[in-house]
């Protein structure tokens, strides 16, 4: 299951990269994609991720918050922000491994 989540995270990051490339004529990722901020938080007891400013997460993992360390649980309760699709993918990998 962890491998499936990791594959989903990578696919999601690739989707952002492809969209950015299409918006920018295929040359390099758009600056807006590199500057997007993603928030990891507790959503119904599971680790979830949404774009900053959005109420609804675009990804809810099957990782239970109760399975994380007390420090991670507390950080998620406040929201953990990361900048850029690569950082989001790395954070997702950390939570799911």
Write a concise keyword list for the protein shown above:
four-stranded antiparallel β-sheet
Q: What is the H-and-E element order?
A: HHEEEHEH
Domain count, please report it: 1
Percent helix range: 40-55%
Structural class: alpha+beta
Architecture overview:
The chain starts with a helix and ends with a helix. α1 (2-23) runs antiparallel to α4. The longest helix has 22 residues, at 2-23. With 97 residues, the protein is of the alpha+beta class. β1 (37-43) and β2 (46-51) form a beta hairpin. The chain is 49% helix and 24% strand. It is built from 4 helices and 4 strands; from the N terminus they run ααβββαβα.
Provide a quick synopsis of the model:
It contains four helices and four strands. The protein has a four-stranded antiparallel β-sheet. The longest helix is centred in the N-terminal third of the chain and has 22 residues.
What's the structural blueprint in terms of helices and strands?
Elements: H1 2-23, H2 31-35, E1 37-43, E2 46-51, E3 59-64, H3 70-78, E4 80-83, H4 85-96
């Amino acid at each position: 299951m962890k491998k499936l989540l990791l594959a989903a995270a990578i696919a999601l990051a690739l989707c952002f990269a492809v969209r950015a490339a299409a918006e920018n004529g295929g040359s390099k990722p758009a600056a807006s994609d590199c500057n997007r901020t993603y928030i990891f938080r507790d959503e119904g007891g599971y680790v979830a991720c949404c774009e900053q400013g959005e109420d609804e997460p675009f990804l809810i993992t099957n990782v239970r918050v109760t399975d994380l360390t007390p420090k991670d649980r507390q950080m998620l309760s406040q929201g953990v922000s990361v900048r850029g699709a690569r950082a989001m993918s790395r954070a997702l990998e950390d939570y799911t491994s």
